Amino acid sequence: MQTIIRYIMVFILAFLIVFIFYSIMFNRKKVKNKEKKITEVNFLIKRYKLDMRKIKYKNLLFTISIINSTIIALAFTAVFYVENYLLSLLIGFILLIILTYALYEIVGRHYQKKGSKEDVQL
After folding, report:
1. In this predicted model, what pLDDT tens digit does every residue of 21-50 receive, in sequence order?
2. Residue-range domain boundaries for the chain
3. How far apart are CA 78 and CA 88, in angstroms?
4. CB-based burial of residue 81 (10 Å sphere; 0-12 exposed, 13-18 middle, 19+ buried)?
5. Global confidence as pTM
6. Helix, strand or coil, per DSSP, at residue 81
7. What's the whole-number average pLDDT of the chain?
8. For residues 103 and 70, is the Cβ–Cβ distance under 8 A?
9. DSSP per residue over 5-48, as a string?
């Protein structure tokens, strides 16, 4: 039971650290370059053909920072307790690829549906 609590505490701590870092970086990048969008936003726009007039940019940035924090925190938590260096690299790499694809797919489809629902209501 205590090991599960330890895993959860490591995950929460890693999540908070990465989330604060991403929030600071996104806000700083947004202030410096108002016209330049971050890579994740450009990917979602091109891949899912999102209409940014229907989506709030701040909400999208917040969602992306939560997703990236979750991906990094889960991979870190899984790798943190593995003793073998090569196995930890392999687990971390596989987790990063799978989580990135899965979570960005979910978010892209969510915003795609959200944009189409708003289009119908107009």
Report:
1. 988 887 666 555 555 678 888 899 899 988
2. 2-26+45-121
3. 8
4. exposed
5. 0.82
6. coil
7. 86
8. yes
9. HHHHHHHHHHHHHHHHHHHHHHHHHHHH-SSPPPHHHHHHHHHH
Report helix angle 57-80 to 39-48, nearest 10.
110
CA pair distance 119, 122, nearest whole angstrom: 5
End-to-end CA distance of the chain: 52
Our measurement of the distance from residue 114's CA atom to the centroid of its chain's CA atoms, rounded to an integer in Å, reads 18
Nearest Cα residue to 72 out of 30, 26, 13: 13
Tokens of 59: 């909400």
- Identify which of 120, 111, 122 has the alpha carbon closest to the alpha carbon of residue 51: 111
> Which residue reads 């989506």 in tokens?
55
* DSSP state letter for 55: S
